[in-house]
Amino acid sequence: MISANLSAIFYLISGILFILALRGLSSPDTSRQGNYFGIIGMVIAIAVTFLSIGNFSTSIIYVFLLLMLGGVVGSFIAFRIPMTAMPELVAGFHSLVGLAAVFVAIAAFLNPSAFNLGSIGDIKLASLIEMSIGAAVGAITFSGSIIAFLKLRGIMSGAPITFTGQHYLNLILGITIFVLIFYLCKSQSESFFWTVIAISFLVGVLLIIPIGGADMPVVISMLNSYSGWAAAGIGFTLENTALIITGALVGSSGAILSYIMCKAMNRSFISVILGGFGADNSSSDTKDKQDQKPVKSGNAEDAAFLMKNASSVIIVPGYGMAVAQAQHALREMVDKLKKNDIKVTYAIHPVAGRMPGHMNVLLAEANVPYDEVFELEDINNDFANSDVAFVIGANDVTNPVAKTDPKSPIFGMPVLDVEKCKSVLFVKRSLSPGYAGIDNELFYRDNTLMLFADAKKMTEDIVKNLD
Amino acid sequence: MEIDPFIFRLSIFILSIFIGYYVVWSVTPSLHTPLMSVTNAISSVIIVGAIIAALAGSSNNIFDTSSIFGFLAIILAAVNIFGGFLVTQRMLQMYKKKKNNKK
């Protein structure tokens, strides 16, 4: 049994270690060390909790058993999950944090004396507010993440689900939560507490269903942020520094990532939340245009010839590449090109994957050295000096219409200037528009060669033709 | 007049938001996915509350309603802690500089 003051200091230390864990991620070299800091911080926090409770009843056996059970399940998932499924995994994990926050809040509400918050029916006002906010945000995080998970997994359609009055309903429900918390504080009645949680679950679902598949990177980041605020709310209830610090860190981290993702798509945060984007699919006039304009298409041989005679090639990967599992074949292709003394770099758009930084992980998995991979702002000027842009599985992020047509839905979105290359190779199944539902005029340019095929098969064929 | 301890916690909270703001902006964009998985893992420090709740049951009745919620939260948080840190580690391993690629 250690004193409350001492344990508070240890919680502070674990909070600092968590800060260092995030700090480590500023470069790949320090990142692994950062992760160890995070693990040490967690071990300290858990150990101190056990020590501060002191009087161990038989229930401690169950605590360890469940800890192990969760640990085994978590480890199993962590080792088995394919990197393409990271967005689903993260969404799923967010839902667990949310639900854990709800459960802890319920436990604190039912047994306040265990947490020094007063007694049943006479919980301290501040604690009651904190725990109900923690529970509400946790519940929203939980159900919202479940919907995000289902959409990412493809169990639920990525299409936005909208109905009239949706936003008013959300607003009313949001206000209701606050009113109920107010009455909960006045009456300490259990039924208000349960209603707050129930409505929050509903709000989480309603918040995420109108958001389309293309905006998923924002949604995941946003839910990341929510899970942090939920943890902070519980941290205030438990008067625990480690939780408060962590909650604040995670909350601001998720908020920054949402901001970066919104900016990468030139969408305001509000318009993402309101949803409905991507609902109006390719209008009929774009289809007419497709029929009229001539398209140059080629085969693997042409592509191999073009790249062999180039001195620099920039690869522009998109999510389509990951879906086709073409990243390993792609690396093989790049290795061959490099053997011919051709300079190869990768250009990554911030929303190239399904979540922030997703494409970088997918390339890293295929053993692409991270110093060959560049972010949009670092590489965009290089296209003009390069011979070939090899666009594989990407579409909207290369569309020059974002720079030229103010009427286009993606106008103003930062795009990769692939058209400035001497020639552009487009690996794509068909001319169909991308997520944003708009035609890409690049397909019809003179310096574009379309390679109609499955990304993996085409890349493998190019590899064969490079010999 | 004494300052309410809540104000101190609020101060820690606000300052931590600022720390988070500056630290996260310095994270390289190529590591944004590991950032999300590791924030996920550390936010599961909520397990601290779960453990307190689970161990709060009286010795003759260790499974009252409150502690059952604590036990459930322990499972959820443990999945997250192990899963989050391990999957982050797995990703970061891929960012190792390949020796044969050095010149």
Task: Describe the structure in your own words.
The complex is a heterodimer of chains A (467) and B (103). In chain A, 60% of the residues lie in helices and 7% in strands. By secondary structure, chain A is of the alpha/beta class. In chain A, strands 5-4-3-6-7-8 form a 6-stranded parallel β-sheet. A two-stranded antiparallel sheet of chain A has the order 1-2. In chain A, α15 links the parallel β4 and β5. Chain A is elongated, with a radius of gyration of 26 Å. Chain A starts with a helix and ends with a helix. Chain B is an all-alpha fold and 103 residues long. The longest helix of chain B has 30 residues. The mean pLDDT of chain B is 87. The chains are: A alpha/beta (467), B mainly alpha (103). Chains A and B meet through α1, α2, α3, α4 and α8 of A and α1, α2, α3 and α4 of B.
What is Rg of chain B?
20 Å
What amount of the residues of chain B lies in strands?
under 5%
Measured between the Cα atoms of the first and last residue of chain B, the distance is: 67 Å
Portion of residues in beta strands of chain A equals 5-15%
Oligomer: heterodimer
Summed over residues and divided by their number, the pLDDT of chain B gives a mean of 87
Give, in order, the helices and strands of chain B: HHHH
Radius of gyration of chain A: 26 Å
What's a quick, concise take on this entry?
The complex is a heterodimer of chains A (467) and B (103). Chain A has 467 residues and is of the alpha/beta class.
Question: Main attributes?
Answer:
heterodimer; A: 467 residues; alpha/beta; six-stranded parallel β-sheet; elongated; B: 103 residues; mainly alpha; flat
